[in-house]
Amino acid sequence: MTADVRIVSTGLYTPPQSVSNAELVEAFNSYVALFNAENARAIEAGEIEPLQPSSPDFIEKASGIKSRYVVDKAGILNPRRMAPMIEARANENLSVLAEMAVAAARDALRAADLGPGDIDGVICAASNMQRAYPAMAVEIQAALGVEGFAFDMNVACASAAFGIETALGLIRAGSRRILMVNPEICTAHLNFRNRDCHFIFGDVATAVIVERADSAARGESWEIVSTRLKTVFSNNIRNNFGFINHCERATGASADPQNSWNTDKLFVQQGRKVFKEVVPLVGDMISAHLKDNGVDIASVRRLWLHQANLSMNDLIARRVLGRDATREEAPVILDDYANTSSAGSIIAFHKHRGDLKIGEIGVISGFGAGYSAGSVIVRRAS
Ligand code: CO8
């Protein structure tokens, strides 16, 4: 007999600073003006193309994003820097990514009235870790005072869905309760000098506590009805930053002016292709997952989707429901938060689930680079 496994709480840490599209565009356009002025001769000679300005109207229309929370606003908005300023910390101090995860974890523990002694294991599931080792999860485990085990896993924006599936497996193998955290400082791997994507990401951390239903039945809980994971290789979203960079032979100055500041290993994507290929991949995955579990589409009350692009989510929801979804059925948080990678669908679940009644069903779905996608069908149990 398989154990009944439930999500018993979620937690959220939102950085205190927020950047509006207008503020971001003002900084970007100042950078463009500086760049074009400093390279006027080369531009005049036709050696390089002038950079084009960005626009708040384009950003909101193309993505649905209005603002984003960030760990450091001043560094991002400084046109001579355009990257968050994050001070290096001594090994004795908690890492910045761990600090955010611990705050989200404490929020989730408080919500479920649990303490560190109630947790058997910690999974840190995110799209970028602070370092290779020691694992972020082990640092977070130590900071919280959790005994047992901890490990990191990275499946880009789908990390949380893969993390929930992994927690489910650990519980079925004998663990009582697993804490899964998703700290994301997306602004540290975003090229704020790239007009095509400078507006896409924000920073946040989320946490989810998964437990065996018979271990404790208190307050709100969500039965994990079924999980499904899918990956299909694609070059359309890449982050090539890694330890091998250190050994790669320098190839000289790049012809791309955007590469003037070691930015060529940061996030890049073919946004249009991602859009076209990921919508059917995710829509069909969720539809088949629901069908295979005998869930009537009409009974699905909510889709807590990854928050990358508003039109993308509208199309996925339409593909699943067979009609346009209302904002209540497919809640949006990307207007405030932008794309927060693995955390996006969990923020939506955290903020927009309280009105579902016992027995009602929804789907948490994360998707992104890899390509990777995950679908978690949940039913409110208490
Ligand atoms: N301001 C004004 N104009 C602009 C701007 C700008 N900032 N940027 C582009 N334009 C122009 C273009 O030059 C183009 O002009 P033209 O038509 O003359 O060529 C025109 O606007 C249209 O450009 P696009 O075709 O690029 O615009 P889209 O309508 O496709 O919108 C989006 C761009 C918003 C990027 C859209 O394609 C999108 O959201 N796609 C899906 C992206 C997605 O879901 N990606 C997921 C990636 S995230 C992920 O998986 C996690 C990775 C790990 C995290 C990494 C953290 C850093």
What is the secondary structure topology, with strand pairs?
Elements: E1 5-13, E2 17-20, H1 21-38, H2 40-44, H3 56-63, E3 67-70, H4 73-77, H5 96-111, E4 121-125, H6 136-144, E5 149-153, H7 159-172, E6 177-185, E7 203-212, E8 222-231, E9 237-238, E10 268-269, H8 271-292, E11 300-305, H9 310-321, H10 334-337, H11 344-351, E12 361-368, E13 372-380
Parallel strand pairs: 4-5, 4-6, 11-12
Antiparallel strand pairs: 1-7, 1-8, 2-3, 6-7, 8-13, 9-10, 12-13
Helix pairs in contact: 5-6, 8-9
Bound molecules: octanoyl-coenzyme A.
Word description of this protein:
This protein is an alpha+beta fold and 382 residues long. The protein has 2 domains: 7-215, Thiolase/Chalcone synthase (Peroxisomal Thiolase, Chain A, domain 1, 3-Layer(aba) Sandwich); 222-237 and 266-380, Thiolase/Chalcone synthase (Peroxisomal Thiolase, Chain A, domain 1, 3-Layer(aba) Sandwich), CATH 3.40.47.10. 32% of the residues lie in helices and 22% in strands. The protein is built from 11 helices and 13 strands. The strands form 3 sheets. A 9-stranded mixed β-sheet has the order 5-4-6-7-1-8-13-12-11, with helices on both faces. A two-stranded antiparallel ribbon has the order 2-3. Strand 4, helix 6 and strand 5 form a beta-alpha-beta unit. Helix 5 crosses helix 6. The structure holds octanoyl-coenzyme A. Octanoyl-coenzyme A binds at residues 54-55, 58-59, 62-63, 127, 156-157, 186, 189-190, 195-196, 201, 237, 239, 267, 269, 271-272, 274-275, 308-309, 312, 339, 341, 368-369.
